[in-house]
Amino acid sequence: MTLSAPAGFTSSDLVYEESFSGTTLDSDWHTYITSNAADGWPWNTNGSGGSTPGGPYNADYDMPSQVSVSDGTLNLTAIKQPISGVNQGGVTQTFPITSGAVSSYGNFEFNGGYLQISMKAPSGDGAWPGLWLMPGDGAGSSGDNFELDIQEGGFTGSGPADNNFSWHLHGPSGWVGDTIDSGINLTAGFHTYGINWVPGESITWYLDGKQMAQVTSAQVAIPDEPMQLMMNLGVANSNASGWHTALDGSTPSSMQMLVDEVQLYQKAGSGDT
Predict the structure, then answer these.
(1) pLDDT band at 270, cuts 50/70/90?
(2) Cα–Cα distance list, 200 to 111, 143, 162, 168, 246 (Å)
(3) pLDDT digits (tens, 9 = 90+) for 234-256
(4) I need a surface site. Which of 68, 229, 232, 244 has the fewest CB within 10 A?
(5) What are phi and psi of 163, to 5 degrees?
(6) Quick one: average pLDDT of 98-115?
(7) Residue 88 — very low, low, confident or very high, per pLDDT cuts 50/70/90?
(8) Over the chain, what is the mean pLDDT?
(9) Going by DSSP bridges, is the β-strand pair 227-235/127-135 parallel, antiparallel, or unpaired?
């Protein structure tokens, strides 16, 4: 689909667009995740290009084989196929799920603007689709430890997990976030997830153009450095029970996270790409 310009912006403010045409990823994207945060984890540690955000809550290890592009859609597929990989602690373990992830590290990086992403989230216990930003290559060798979660699916504690909009901002001075019942089954179709980021000042989160949350520098530090986009289909294990659905016998043998559009809008002089 082609997204319309968000409120307050026009088509002339569009500075980046990815519509996943063709059958292969273009050169902006890696099939692994990595970060330039000062205390960044060694995610991209598999010689075959695999990676994981995988602390104690992740059942998935991400491999290029689980990333595909067709019919104008990026497809990240999680399957119940055990795989050996290296966790955040540097220890090799067996992950019960093989899944997919992409990142724009070193390629598409930006500092401020309105980013919007059209995604169809997967349904199933443990499904943990993520749209998030972390310091990119342009942040230098000591990027601040920011993590900006545009949306993390599958969180519990509000409405039904498939309805929940979950946002977070982690930074060097702490974190803020919430899980909100959107009143919509977000796994039933494509929805538009957005942020309007004013570097050093504020971040506002949107779902289908509706404001869901806002954070200012009076509450927590706001990033002011180049950030990369990361998109992954995580799967939570039983350690996440209590705040997220978890992988179990009812989890489908295959789950898909679909993305068909990424756009960034910036007013002249307001940010860098």
Answers:
(1) confident
(2) 10, 14, 32, 16, 35
(3) 999 999 999 999 999 999 999 99
(4) 68
(5) -90, -15
(6) 96
(7) confident
(8) 92
(9) antiparallel
Residue keyed to tokens 């082609």:
2
Q: CB neighbours (10 Å) of residue 219?
A: 13
Identity at 73, one-letter amino acid code: T
In the chain the first and final C-alpha atoms are separated, in Å, by: 23
* Residues ≥6 apart with Cβ < 8 Å to 127: 78, 121, 153, 154, 187, 233, 235, 245, 251, 255, 257
Q: State the Cα–Cα distance between residues 206 and 211, nearest whole angstrom.
A: 4
Place of tokens 């940010």: 271
- Residue 195: which residues within 8 A CB-CB, separation 6 or more? 114, 115, 148, 150, 203, 204, 205, 206
Residue 121's pLDDT band, with cuts at 50, 70 and 90, is very high
Is the pLDDT reported for residue 27 higher than 60? Answer: yes
Amino acid 221: pLDDT: 93
Question: What does the angle CA 109 – CA 236 – CA 34 come to, to the nearest 5 degrees?
Answer: 25
Q: According to the CATH classification, is domain 14-265 in 3.30.360.10? A: no
Task: Please choose, from the candidates 173, 168, 186, 171, the residue with its C-alpha nearest in 3D space to the C-alpha of residue 117.
Answer: 186
Rounded distance between C-alpha atoms, residue 232 and residue 129, angstroms: 6
Only one residue has tokens 């088509």, namely 11
User: Do the beta carbons of residue 119 and residue 131 sit within 8 Å?
Assistant: yes
Global pTM value: 0.94
Amino acid at 190: F
